[in-house]
Write the structure tokens for this entry.
Amino acid sequence: MTTTSSSIVLRHASDIEPVWSTLIEVYAEVRADQLHRPHYSVERYGERLARHAHDPGWEAVVGYDGAEPVGYAYVNTLTADDRWWKRMKTPLPADCTTTPTVALKEIMVREQWRKTGTARRIHDELLASRPEQRVSLLVNAEAGGGKVLALYESWGYTKISEQQPSPDGPVLTAMLRDIR
């Protein structure tokens, strides 16, 4: 079966409750090979998701092929004193923390819908109506043998620093780009 991005319906959510189980289910499938590692466990992801869902400006976009969820992304608004900025390993220019920015906290696409443009459609739809000027994300530079980092670079993201949000998690590359 050939899947195309154009057959995917994108739905916004600003409340976690209706999409909670969908996000957990997709996460568990996408991260199946890493769930044995404490940082990637479904329980730890659920804790992060619950915390993020109560941060300012939380919003998700979930893609569906018919009734089947294919992937999602979600964001939060960052404040100038947000822990996101405080965990950076190198000093940032002042405008990094004062320019209105949203953090792309997760983007997940199930295997069947990868390399179809679905991830980019979900990403772009989520950011299209955001009031912030910039978007930041964290990526494991080793993911996919560096392919995920290269994908984000092709979407216009540039490296600004690194951080390790949890002691048992990987060091992540922090990236930033303008939304429009």
